[in-house]
Request: fold
Amino acid sequence: MSNKVLEINNLLMQFGGLKAVNDVSLDVHKSEITALIGPNGAGKTTFFNCLTGVYTPTSGDINIIPPGKKPIRANGKKPNKVTELGLARTFQNIRLFQEMTVLENVMIGRHAVTKANIFNAIINGKSTREEEQKIIHDSYEILKKLDLHTFSNEFASNLPYGAQRLLEIARALATEPFLLLLDEPAAGMNPQETISLIGTIEKLKAEHDLSILLIEHDMHLVMNLSDRCYVMDYGKLIAKGTPNAIANNPVVIKAYLGEDF
Amino acid sequence: MMNRVEILKKSAINAVIGILLTFPITVIKVNTIDQEITWRWYMMGLVGAVVLIISFFWIRQQERQNSGSTFKFNESKLGLKYHSIMSKPGVTKSVLGSAVLLIVLIPFITTPYTTSIITSALIYIILGLGLNIVVGLGGLLNLGYAAFFGVGAYTYAILNMNFGVGFWLALPLGGIASALFGAIVGLPVLRLKGDYLAIVTLGFGEMTRIFTENSDKLTRGASGIANIPKPTFFGHAFGYFGSTRYIYLIAVALVIIIIFIVWRMENSRVGRSWVAMREDDIACESMGIDLTQSKMTLFIISSAIAGVAGVLFAAKNTFINPQSFTVWESIMILCIVVLGGKGSVRGVILGALILILLPEYLRAFQQYRMLIFGFLLIVMMVFRPGGIIQNVRKIYKIEGEPTNE
Amino acid sequence: MDVGYFLKLLLSGLTRGSIYALIALGYTMVYGIIKLINFAHGELYMLGAFTGLIVASLMSYSGINPVLSLIVATIIAIIYSSAYGVAIEKIAYKPLRKSQRLSALISAIGVSMFLQNFVLLFQTSDFLSFPNLIPTFKFLKPVENYLSSAQVLIYICTALFLIGFTILVKFTKTGKAMRATSQDSKMAQLLGISINKVISFTFLIGSAAAAIGGVLISSQVGQINFYIGFIVGIKAFVAAVLGGIGSLAGAVLGSFVLGLVESFGTGYISSNYEDLFAFVVLIVILTFKPAGLLGKSEKQKV
Ligand SMILES: Nc1ncnc2c1ncn2[C@@H]1O[C@H](COP(=O)(O)OP(=O)(O)OP(=O)(O)O)[C@@H](O)[C@H]1O
Ligand SMILES: [Mg+2]
Reply:
């Protein structure tokens, strides 16, 4: 109980008649990687959107438990508040700030943990300048960790696809989360890139003491990374367990039938 | 890729279509009073020729852009040269210094007429800079900006008429009044997205104008307020020449101050978050940025700037009426921002100078100027939608790291 | 309460509503398909009115039967406005389909400026009087204080157009292609619908409706100038937004709501504020129903 960082009970998200997320309960444990898998349209991304405040769930409970603190009910909180609580996410359909530089994208991520307001900006006193320097410095350090620093001053839109996915992660990391939500981080990557991504995620997890909730289609990645695994289909949770148990679960195999799995 | 002959052929076809399409409007002229019809057949030749020429260059340009790698404009050679010169140490300072000197000298070496026109351009630069904060940086389309300009102008006019408030006190008051107005309008408006925001701001703008036109007691209605005093210098009033120069210098000072403020904001944590909001509001919110608060800040600051410009405008013209604050005025300011290059201070300055000075000095084309103007907007959007000066972002140098420029 | 006055305002509100509906449909269709506020749409109404005036004057000065003149003038106005509409799309909007929305909007503003000044330069900045071509319907004699022949004609034409339009959108292949495109243009393309054709057709129909409105209202009011399209265009757009932009039924509903509000507002409050009511209604409705009366408030997919 005490090592949970996220506890979700009976979450329901309805769009008109469609129950995109239907009675899903899920826990994320501290310092673990939890995977959420399921066929296309299963409701995984919608689930993320409910957690992060992009959608307000129809019913159910979302409890965020920052390490060493009391649980906070996050239903209906705005995305920026959720981020302030220590959740950060990446987007499946890459949503970078295309016409800003790579470094700036990460600098935006530092927003949540810095303070200067508009008056500070105009006066530009010592502490403001120092904070700005620190934002630049910290952002650059994060880029280095993901090996993106050579692109610092490029527009985000000019990055290759795989690098854009990494930048999404860098940007999320910049908000200093304790729980990182990754929505299909390996989508569109070639096998080599995927392998290197596995290493990167493990490294980041260790260095930043992260817990991770991961949506992924790539089973190789899920098997390698995840400690526990949840499976969704048509909005419902159909299985949970260790990756190996899931891979041999007949219900799961049936749900995926027709997919190259 | 089409060759010239093919382009010419296509253009000829377009010319014929153009003649047919414009036939009733250009050829037939009806005089409904004397019930007479004039047939201007020569118009067919004229229209044909104009369409042929424009079409030729249009298609050629399109072909060029399609064949080249169009996904990102490269800086022109001139632009690169500009950057390489400006980046030499000390150059920026001396260029800026001599520019400021030259600008300050203008009213003493040209006619009052020129000075007055340039002052107008300066007021539009202020307006452009203000609107640019909302549209260019924040990506929120405001089609009622002239109303905020009007609130500033009327604040000065009304306070002066009733309480004898002078220019220097009115300047901040106009800004504050306009900012308050911005906050009030902002409350219901900022929940809306994209096009809804555009039409509602347009609506608020028009409502303000209509209200001004109809409240005779407060604003003297459609006839406007006259005899607004020009600014004084520690109680000293100037003659005609003197005050033209004086207002010009005040305008220059305000432009410099506002550029400075905008520049500081742009390169700050808050300014960056505005650009992020423009680029992707959902991702922006997910980075911990409070969108409502950001939008409100943007709106209020830009309103305040418009208010200051309004006070200056009222003082310069000594007469204001609601006709100076119509939708077209708002659109004009929007065009300054878009033409120059959204989000860029240099672009706004360039845009204002082009839009205000060019028509003044193209008296020969007076009749055609709005026509040409509309056409230029289309051409600009089709061939260079980012504006004259493309979006450039700050290059950050990281200490102890090699940069890749 | 004066019932006669009320009735009169009601009927004139319906007239306004009809004209707004004819124009608002064009706005909402274009918006539904390419997500562009066609700022220049009002100018097509103005061009329709001018073309109609020119043709009608030509014919009536040479002594041709007024009813025939009106019909021919309307048809030619429709043809010309549609041609302008399609041409504008090809020149000023098509190249911008992939750019930012703001760019296309600015381009539309450019078109609007261009067309207004085009007519101003080649015709005149003065008001021109529209020949009086609408016949006096004898059966309206008893109610002529409340209802003019022109109004009846406007109701009839609008009703006919709306019926024809509904049939077109609901039952024909083109109409189905239009609806499909407006729901999901990528999907429609995959299903083999030619987007270009659909868009051209949308502009064609929208402009035709605007032209009908232009000729009808001009022959009722009796005079036009180059600027008439702008204000009416903005109000029709307000009507479309009121109804929920993108929704065809919403555009019609919004138009009648707006027409009635304006008519009663000017009648009972003050005619000085004629142009104010539209925006007040707009803001009130959007505050409570941010997607308009019939618009669906869809959550953006993330
Ligand atoms: N804003 C929305 N409005 C209406 N329906 C939505 C919305 N967002 C998602 N849906 C629907 O919810 C269902 C689940 O979609 P979701 O994107 O969550 O699936 P997913 O599991 O992430 O699939 P994929 O693997 O393809 O990413 C789909 O049927 C989708 O159409
Ligand atoms: Mg998904």
Summary: Chain C touches chain B through 69 residues (CB under 8 Å). Chain C has one domain: 3-288. The beta strands of chain C are 128-129, 223-224. The CA atoms of residues 84 and 279 of chain C lie 29 Å apart.
